[in-house]
Amino acid sequence: MITLKGEHIYLRALEPEDLEFIHAIENDESVWEISNTITPYSRFLIKQYLKQSHKDIFEVKQLRLVISNYDDVALGMIDLFDFDFKNSRAGVGILLKETKDRAKGYGSEALNLLINYSFNHLGLHQLYCNISEENNASIKLFANQGFEKIGLKKDWNLVNGSYKNEYIFQLIKN
C-alpha cells in the first residue's frame, strides 16, 4: 500500500484548485533563489502546467506534490525533478510557503515520506539535492534525513549580482 500520510501532514497530487497557491509561490521573489527562477509566472502558464500534472513521472521526469495538513490547508510543495529512470535517481526540492509553518517538523515529515516513496515504490537508488551554502535550515533538514554533503560547487548561482556557492547532497538507498 502506498502511503503518503504522516502524523501531521500528507502529500497529495496537484489539483486545479491549487492554482492560486502555486501562483503565489512561483511569484514570491523571496524564494526565487531557491528555485532558480528569474521571471514571474502567469496564471495561464500555471493553469497549463496543472492540466499536465496528471502525467506519469516516467513521462515528464518530474513529480510535484502538495504538502497539506489534516485540515486540508496547503502548506508547501515537494518535488522530484530530473527523474532518471536509467540511473535510478532524482533530485529533490521542498518549500514551505509561510515562514510560520517552518521549523515545526512538517518539512522533515514530508521529506521522509518522499524518501520512502522514492525508494520503496519508484525503485530509486539515490536522491540528491542542491542547497545554497547559506541555507542552514535546508542543510539541517536534509542532513537529518541522512543526506550526505558530497561536494561544493563554487560561484554556482548568480544572486543579486553576487555569485554564491552551492552544496550537493546525496542519499543512497541502503
Automatic annotation (TrEMBL):
SUPFAM superfamilies: Acyl-CoA N-acyltransferases (Nat) (SSF55729)
Pfam family name, one: Acetyltransf_3
Residues annotated as domain N-acetyltransferase: 9-172
Signal peptide location: none
UniProt-recorded name of the protein: GNAT family N-acetyltransferase
